[in-house]
Amino acid sequence: MSARIQEPRSGGEPRRGETLIQQRNRKIILCAALDEFSAHGFHGASIANIARAAGLSKANLLYYFSRKEELYRALLTSLIDTWGVPLTSLDPDGDPREELLSYVRRKLQQTRTMPRESRLLANEILQGGPHLEGETLESLRRIVQSKTDLIRSWSAAGRIPHVDAPHLLISIWALTQNYADYDSQIRRLLGEEADISDTPQTFLETLYGSLLAS
Amino acid sequence: MSARIQEPRSGGEPRRGETLIQQRNRKIILCAALDEFSAHGFHGASIANIARAAGLSKANLLYYFSRKEELYRALLTSLIDTWGVPLTSLDPDGDPREELLSYVRRKLQQTRTMPRESRLLANEILQGGPHLEGETLESLRRIVQSKTDLIRSWSAAGRIPHVDAPHLLISIWALTQNYADYDSQIRRLLGEEADISDTPQTFLETLYGSLLAS
Amino acid sequence: MSARIQEPRSGGEPRRGETLIQQRNRKIILCAALDEFSAHGFHGASIANIARAAGLSKANLLYYFSRKEELYRALLTSLIDTWGVPLTSLDPDGDPREELLSYVRRKLQQTRTMPRESRLLANEILQGGPHLEGETLESLRRIVQSKTDLIRSWSAAGRIPHVDAPHLLISIWALTQNYADYDSQIRRLLGEEADISDTPQTFLETLYGSLLAS
Amino acid sequence: MSARIQEPRSGGEPRRGETLIQQRNRKIILCAALDEFSAHGFHGASIANIARAAGLSKANLLYYFSRKEELYRALLTSLIDTWGVPLTSLDPDGDPREELLSYVRRKLQQTRTMPRESRLLANEILQGGPHLEGETLESLRRIVQSKTDLIRSWSAAGRIPHVDAPHLLISIWALTQNYADYDSQIRRLLGEEADISDTPQTFLETLYGSLLAS
DNA sequence: CATGAATGAGAATTCATTCAT
DNA sequence: CATGAATGAATTCTCATTCAT
Description:
4 copies of one chain form a homotetramer. Chain A is mainly α.
């Protein structure tokens, strides 16, 4: 898992017929774009900044992605896939409770190691997802579908208490996402001296642990 | 409570020394601004749009709020207060578990009746809160502080299971926020035909119910 | 002399039919305008600033001077007269050399006690005097005319060496003006540690003293 | 000397790494800017005007100088150097009196052939030099320093009468500047029919001639 | 592949001025 | 006398995008 999560981070697959230089540049651009878009949102981001960060001229950048939106979309597409990865390892043959708790752990870790990616997606979603096309989501949807089915079957078999599967997943996403994005802000909300004794992980385990306790 | 939440919605209290016209226009402007900012974010929003929506000339709008940022800040400030309201009704003398569950309910309702406000705050927070000044947060902080103390005392008295107070609140915020913002997107993620049997409220009650069960 | 130079400084004569309040406000406005216009030039000056400095509302200021230009013109007019005053005391019956040197002294002193006024006039003149109407200058012209005649008569009588009268006056104006306006800048040009041993007055007396020496 | 004064007039040296087009456009822009700024001052000048005069689009102009102030500064910088040129030819080995008088002549000529440049500098200086940075002045300062030393040495050696060196230079600047800037205005002040028999040059030679006469 | 040059459409402000009260 | 409210025109500057080389 960690390999796929860490490595290609932002790139999308190399396309056929591309020079090595082209592949390299695409990657560099997407990486710079991730920085910029996640920090300032779609409108706040500027192509000039991305080009500078990537060490290319604006015109050259636009040779690779001919419009701002195209670049943004490419970025989203490459992220959406990665985003779904932790879910795939949910094992039908494992212990249900253990499997789900370990999914929570994996998801939390992913969010924390990829805060920019998380922020970007959250931001896009906040705007109502105007740049996410249906097809982009299709494969993700399939995974989700199969896993909600799995959870439902566990539930039906009485191996975990009854719980609405989609809501369970959604809540996990929201809570883990939260720890990537809201972190610094939460400190400000609560004040620097707020005494938070538990780690996010401990808390989440307690929360989902008691939900899934028989 | 609901009165304060519904009514002034976006405006802040009328200030001393303000003409009637001023009060009216300030309200209209803030309302239009809420629409625009929550839909497009700070950078994506345009003063021209807000002015048009408010039925004023750009110059006239700037007569009331002399810069885009001032308008945005005024909006945030007026929202932050409202945002903290549901927390205030957490009653030290009530039944702990019942009190907390009903806070969840109130918070969820607030989020759903004020999706624009929620989106705006979330957006701001995602960017790292560059427009939120310390003082804006102070009163909110005080409420939060007193309520985390209350929860801790309940926990210490064994009236609810041990749970980290700040984390509990944070999780409630994240989850309820989620139902305002991510709703449509979640539908898209899961597919239109996804069968979600429970309502958000049912799910949240189950989740926090089991966490707080003795 | 000093009375007329010091006192009305910027005001113009009170007009018939004006309330006391009106007279007072006119004066205050002109005074504030002098500050602003002399500091930033015609274009750089803003009516809002002047109004604020005068403690009036913009609209009220425009009640007195209905356009920016009118205010500026009124200011210039009131200054031009004052500006010519030192020349009037040039005494046909005194010692020519002594009279001229003492005119230099008076002019220098005026410039230094009224730097804002000097700067304003110089600025206007630099732009080619687009706001100075012929009539404004008429009375000044008459004085100058009579005094150049006087100087010429002294020169013709051999009481001072031959020197072109208009040029003499012009040079005095330019040099004294210079000491009001260019002062700080000259320090910067020469460096803070420049050792200037003479005062402007000493230098000017030496310069004109040797020119007028028999 | 005159070559350097006439030729690059407004531009500064072409920088390394500049395209031919860039060099050309920079020159054209600076030239148009000189017209506009010298005529209306910094605030009165408009980028749109300059662009029109240069035959470029506003946006294209801003491609070369990304802000109004940058353009203005570039202009000033290129002028300041030129401005100091006549002083450099002051020859330690020549006849002191003759050298100084010929400096006056050179300076006067420069001022008259470059009235826009003179007006611009004078204007800037009148505002207190808010756009002149210390470094811009450094080289100029060095020249001035070496020349005041020279004059002082002449004075100490008794080859010219005692005169305060900085004051001497300052007076020359003020008087010559005056003939560029105040010319038309002086005509108006004195009236069209004023009989000015001497030329500026004659007058200045008389003035400084008598000051420097042994 | 890459880039310098150019641009049009808009962005936020500023500001003198007008109008009704 | 005085002012709050309103505005239109202009101004500086930004930015994604295009074009020619």
